[in-house]
Amino acid sequence: MARERIEPYTALIVQPEVTVVEDRAGIQHNLDRIKNMIHFGVGYFWEVPVRLVVLPEYFLQGVGTPGKGETGIADAMKKAVTIPGPEIDQLAEIAQQYELYICGGGVMESVPEFPDRWFNTNFIIGPSGDIVLKYHKWHIPASVGLGTSPHDIFDEYCEKLGGDITDLFPVVDTPIGKLGTMTCHDGCTPEVSRALGYNGAEIICHPGAIQEVEGVSEPWDFWMFTRRTRAHDNMCYLLGSNWGSVNYDYYPKAFCPGRSFAIDYTGMVMREAPYPAEQVLACTVDIEALRHYRTRTNHNCWVDVRTEGFRQMYDNPIYPANRFPSGKPPRTLSEKISICKEVFDDLYARGQFTPPAGVEPEDVSKLLQKRIDYAQATGRLRKS
Hints:
GO terms for molecular function: N-carbamoylputrescine amidase activity. InterPro entries: Aliph_Amidase/BUP, C-N_Hydrolase, C-N_Hydrolase_sf. Keywords: Hydrolase. It holds the Pfam family CN_hydrolase. This protein is an alpha/beta fold. The chain is about 30% helix and about 20% strand. The protein has twelve helices and 14 strands. The strands form three sheets. The protein has a six-stranded mixed beta sheet with strand order 6-5-4-3-1-14. The protein has a six-stranded mixed beta sheet with strand order 7-8-9-10-12-13, covered by helices on one side. β8, α6 (about 190-200) and β9 (about 205) form a beta-alpha-beta unit. The radius of gyration is 21 Å and the shape is globular.
């Protein structure tokens, strides 16, 4: 049966100022600001009604990275929330009021099945006010992310929450198109977006807390050129939201300096906010145009995918699974970083990486350990 036509609509990408809070009570300050920015955007762009809103990673709680302000697991659990829960319910009310889909990301979520840790969680609320999709961030970088990835607890996670590709990288079919989501570092490599594309995503909502040190501004606009590639390869819209500015004693105000964007299904940038300040971007989403584009064979990034030659890359694990099982959540960044020693040993032993002059393959992991020891001894990384 033929589908009904989806009329073009407006999507909002919210780039807020975020305050790093100490506990759950502090969340309301960030939430009130977000709600007002949604009210603004829905009202201002009334002629082509808003149907979708994308919020950045850690928009509720903020997060601390290495150094004096590093967030430990106990710090994070003080501000962890449940989804659904009273904080998310406030956004659900707005979704019902305006008939919106709202995607928020990077929420420090306490999950009943694994109560000793938190997950970095994206959610999508539907116009009914219900949670229609929930996703746990897969690629959490060891050096800046302390949340648990499903991969860290893989066997248990799959048993309790599902291990099919549709469970791990869900896509929801809605009246405004097929929606999926990925978080921040997920977009640095092709796999997560490819899984979403495989599952049918037409729009990837992409919350991020992308730091300048990770490449936001030109000439090293890593955030932009990698995400244009993700959109192009999967022939989907990609809506990326970053912080505009931040309030935290240990961060510069422009720590995550904006540059939120809307990218279309050809990889073309439609809108951008190229500055570290609050903003609400609006772009027109035309799902019917995307669907027509996908019917063509020329330059179709899916019809010519030939999988057989690539299987060995994924048959040989790189980053080890199941390293933080129940009872042993990741407690410090240095604990997660230390696992990279094993990864280095493997990459250099197989000859994939070549060490610099004067360094033997087996010595690279020792270099990393020396750096960790020095950072801990001088207060650059937490010991516990």
